[in-house]
Amino acid sequence: MLYYALVFLVVALIAGVLGFGGIAGASASIAQVLFFVFLVLFVVSLVMRVARR
User: Tens-of-pLDDT digits for all 53 residues of the chain?
Assistant: First the structure.
């Protein structure tokens, strides 16, 4: 999931440099959502690992 967030971030950066504002904004939003979903799943994974011990 972090991989896809980075891919969308790169797409947003390239689109922003080339002047495609709408595509850059949409890609940045998708990257942000995916990154926060990754963070939530990572924290849940850590809590579940600590709870099992």
Answer: 789 888 988 999 999 999 998 988 999 999 999 999 999 999 999 999 999 88
Structural domain including 3 reads 1-52
Residue 8: Cβ-neighbour burial (10 angstroms; 0-12, 13-18, 19+): buried
List the one residue out of 17, 33, 16 whose CA is nearest residue 25: 16
Interhelix angle 2-18/21-52, nearest 10 degrees: 160
In the chain, the number of structural domains is: 1
